[in-house]
Specification:
With 202 residues, this protein is of the alpha+beta class. The protein is built from 5 helices and 9 strands; from the N terminus they run E-E-E-H-E-E-H-E-E-H-E-H-E-H. The strands form 4 sheets. It has a 3-stranded antiparallel β-sheet, covered by helices on one side. The longest helix is centred in the middle third of the chain and has 12 residues, at 126-137. Bound molecules: iron/sulfur cluster (SF4) (2 copies). One iron/sulfur cluster binds next to helix 2.
Amino acid sequence: MRTPETPWSEPPECGADTPSGMVFDIQRMCVHDGPGIRTVVFLKGCPLRCAWCHNPEGMDPRPQLLYHAAACVQCGKCAEVCPEGVHRFDAETGHRLDRSRCRACFACVDACCTGALTRTGRDMTVAEVMAEALRQLGDKASDIQPILVSIDPARDTPQVLADYVANFGPQFVGLTGTPDQVKAMADAYRVFYAKVENKDDP
Ligand code: SF4
Ligand code: SF4
């Protein structure tokens, strides 16, 4: 358990080789699709194409522009700053977007003062995700024991894991187990995982 001397107000230190991912949401108080009350981190680049998907913005691995028509007051500011001519207006159809031209510079997001245009997807390190998740918990963060679980015991031996979690601060604990134990844990939390061979791995 962390102590009062290790506050969460600052992101934990981490190594330069800390992995990162394209995050599109971090949700508190999730009580569906698994046991307990959890903070869930949503990553872009989902390879599944479920017909009932509630988060289609998670499919594309890149940052994307979102448009909320109900919030648009058709001021035209987005068209003024867009270098690609994505935003068009006419009397019949109102504001239309030619998304095939968008190169995701997000100048229009900065220009839009109503929140009709937003960016989804931000590259975040593990440390940044942990810091944000704990920040959302406020004072209750002091009750949290952060745990990093490896699902690759063949590569992440206890020593490798200990060296890795040391990058995040003394309050972090690393866990792994036998392949059967890891599978039991993943099944209990409804986690899907698969090993992908990388030619750059040592
Ligand atoms: S800047 Fe925002 S509110 Fe104005 S037209 Fe563009 S999307 Fe609509
Ligand atoms: S993100 Fe950039 S290129 Fe895409 S619509 Fe906005 S201003 Fe134009």
